[in-house]
Design brief:
The chain is an alpha+beta fold. The protein has helices spanning 34-44, 83-94, 141-147, 181-186, 191-198, 237-249, and strands spanning 2-10, 21-26, 49-56, 66-73, 78-79, 106-111, 114-121, 124-128, 133-135, 159-168, 172-178, 206-214, 217-226, 229-233, 255-261, 269-275, 281-296. Helix content is 19%, strand content 42%. Strand 12 (206-214) and strand 13 (217-226) form a beta hairpin. The relative contact order is 0.18.
Amino acid sequence: MDLPFVLLNVFAREGDPFSGNPLAVFPDAGSLATERMQAIARQLNLSETTFVTRVEADDAEPGTPVVAEVRIFTPGYEMPFAGHPTLGTADVVAGLSGILGGPADEVVLRMPAGPIPVTREGDGWRLAARSGSSRAAGVDAVGLAGILGLGDAGGHVRVVEAGTAWVDVGVEQLLVQLDGVEAVRACRPDASAVERVLAPMTTEPHVYVWAWAGERSLEVRLFAALGGALDEDPATGSACANLGALLAEAGHRGVDLEVSQGAHVSRPSLLRLRIDDEGVVSVAGRVVRVGEGTLNLP
């Protein structure tokens, strides 16, 4: 069996095709069993790999969204939703030959977390986030500073509790506001401490640190701890959507924000976060195709 795939970088910065978060998309994966999808994702070893299992375009009218069913896998498990796989997969689905006679500008991706509308925007795509939920962090500021490796700077704790909470618009993450970008850059989390403290509270111990870098800009980092190891993500659309939900709840409306991530893993990324006047959150970014190939399976 020969399976074609597309390799993309999502949330890439202009002028740097090797920035952003890498993604592999298999556009014709309807015949694959779950176990085979997981094995392929493990083989490629990217942060996520997506599989398009069905595209509903036969009865679509021109100007209407193309609907596709999609599954997302990390090398270790399936995810109900993730941001950069959503944008990258939308780009591939929209460009499939034979759909409405040309590339589509609107796509709806059906995922385990629910349908996600995605719209073309310049050289990228914008996803509309679902409404979500939030809950208290369950760890005080001193405890959070400790697991993040920030310690106690002369009696000053760098965690801002007002901007710290668990948020879930598709994937739950612990958002931790810090008092400046210097604190974001200084984070040196202890993997075992992150897992020990957060794992009892959630299925995925992810912590997303953020701080204002300017009036309309933020700097963020996301850390995931599992099995005593710590991974840092280059660009996390789901966490950016969670951040939008948190900011909307705090009263931020009618704003467009630039969110920088990935510099610490040499994958500088730019996410465009929008909160409209009604508090609806969307996340956009550039999508760059960097290659295509075929996976040869027995």
